[in-house]
Amino acid sequence: MKPTEDWTTGMEAISFQCCAACNHVQYFRRAFCAACGAPDPVDKTASGQGTVYATSLVLRAGTPEAREHVPYNIVLIDTAEGFRMMAHGANDLAIGDKVAARYARFTGRLVPYFERTSA
Ligand SMILES: [Zn+2]
After folding, report:
1. In the β-sheet with 15-18, what is the strand arrangement from edge to edge?
2. Ligand 1 being an ion, which residues bring their Cβ within 5 A of it?
3. Among 1, 5, 42, 117, which residue's CB has the most CB atoms within a 10 Å radius?
4. Is this model's pTM higher than 0.85 or not?
5. pLDDT band at 109 (very low <50, low <70, confident <90, very high)
6. Where are the domains of the chain?
7. Bridging pattern class, strands 109-116 and 84-89
8. How much distance in Å is there from the Cα of 93 to the middle of ligand 1?
9. What are 30-59's pLDDT values in tens digits?
10. Separation of 39 CA from ligand 1 center, angstroms?
11. Which CATH entry fits the domain spanning 49-116: 2.40.128, 3.80.10, 2.60.120, 2.40.50?
């Protein structure tokens, strides 16, 4: 699996980029580093480990397709690699929980789904 292949292309992985010049990490793929502007940040695959930064339990679905999933939790995760990402998560997650990613189907799409780790 190439590091540019991840859940957005249907693979069970999360990609990010790391700048070779300043080590800045970024989640959204760009042709340059958002911190220093250096070209061609390196694509990498994340471990899926992280910590919950914020949670938002959705009680009213935004679309008819999402209604069957209600209630569902939208979480912000500070990943072990240093970038922050929005994802789905278990409904009982709390801020500060250590989590790991698995993958689930949401309205037909494969999405990262974070669950608390035993530690
Ligand atoms: Zn940089």
Report:
1. 25-26, 15-18, 42-45
2. 19, 21-22, 24, 33, 35-36, 38
3. 5
4. yes
5. very high
6. 1-45, 49-116
7. parallel
8. 33
9. 999 999 999 999 999 999 999 999 999 999
10. 8
11. 2.40.50
